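User: Show me a protein chain along with its predicted structure.
Assistant: Here is one chain, sequence first, then structure tokens.
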Amino acid sequence: MGKTTTAINLAANLAQAGERVLLIDMDSQANATHGLGVRTLRGEPTVLEVLLGEKPLASILRSSSVPRLDVAPSSPDMAGSSVLLPNLDRREYRLKEAVAEMADTRGRYDYVFIDCPPSLGLLTVNSLVAADQVIIPVQTEYYALEGLAQLIATVFAVRERLNPSLKVAGLVLTMMDPRTTLARQVEQEIRSHFPNLSFKTVIPRNVRLAEAPSHGLPVSLLDPHCAGSDAYFDLAMEVVSHG
């Protein structure tokens, strides 16, 4: 529970605050799609057709369980992108160009979130090239620290070669259990090494956060008064204040 949970709940909080929000699901597991109550039938177009140039982004958008929050859905077919995308022209810019075309024809969203795959492949590179800022969820576990260095290096490499405007908006600690020594140590490490990049808000371990995707809802609709809902509201306000 980290990147997709954060994408869903940040997007939902901003939509509930009155913003027009789009969530683009770039992960073949389609967890962000399903977590917002969107189901795609076999043969229905998804982000894959957009990346291949077969459909405009605006044509595949679906309404979610949250008013003012639309979803560009994924499906398991997205796994085929690793074979199909490398053969295309401007393969790293496919998503960026699709988003720009949609903005010209449909009008702009106030916020666009992209849920990246867990691996650092071409889908993730497309996401980073299309993005202005990166929010990095970090689970308060030992192995998360090892992967963080590689991810930040990838962000910097994309910024240097493909997207000069890309920046890290911040690191957000997730699945935090302050009762464990390890969680407190990981938080201390993150805040000492990245003092200017660490969001103040910490996302706790919370049963309702884990349950929400099975209902196709963000936690703010499933249980607006739980600790997880409060934390993501605070994080959304912090993200807005950071610009």
